[in-house]
Specification:
152 residues, alpha+beta, Arc Repressor Mutant, subunit A, Dna Ligase, domain 1, two-stranded antiparallel sheet, 5 strands, globular, FUR, metal-binding, DNA-binding transcription factor activity
Length: 152
């Protein structure tokens, strides 16, 4: 778990005078400790910690985190929604073959993209605070699997 991220979330809640309930604390721990998660994964995590959970309460808290810009929602194949903590630069790759969805952590790429985007946005008077990029293609594993061996 990213203790720094969890502490940042708790600080935000205190600054905004939002009550830090048990369910909110478990949700914040989950967000701070996972790259991506679905609502069902989150509900399972909450149930491990607290027992039964009001599903509507989970959705309401997710909406709160989205409104506070502490959480991103991403749609995979237009069907499944996954969530993740907001950072300044989010870069994802998505394989069309196996549906893998990976978070890329590349300070060099992120820095270059940030600089290029900010330069353009400065020209139109827009100040960027974060960006999200999703690239689609075929992963290495699927590429190798799809290679046809020459017949002998």
């Amino acid at each position: 778990m990213s203790k720094e991220l969890l502490d940042e979330y708790i600080k935000t809640f205190k600054e905004k005078k939002i009550k830090l309930t048990d369910i909110r604390l478990v949700i914040l721990k989950c967000v701070a400790s996972r790259k991506h998660f679905t609502i069902n994964e989150l509900i399972s995590e909450i149930e491990k910690e607290l027992g039964t959970v009001n599903v509507m309460s989970v959705y309401n808290n997710i909406d709160l985190l989205l409104d506070l810009h502490l959480l991103f929602s991403n749609t995979i194949n237009g069907k499944q929604i996954i969530y993740e903590a907001i950072t300044n630069q989010l870069i994802h790759i998505k394989c069309h073959e196996c549906d893998s969805y990976e978070h890329i952590n590349s300070p060099i790429l992120s820095g270059e993209l940030w600089s290029s985007c900010q330069q353009f946005l400065d020209s139109i008077g827009f100040t960027m605070d974060h960006f999200k990029l999703e690239m689609h293609g075929i992963c290495k594993k699927c590429s190798q699997k799809n290679k046809v061996e020459p017949s002998k």
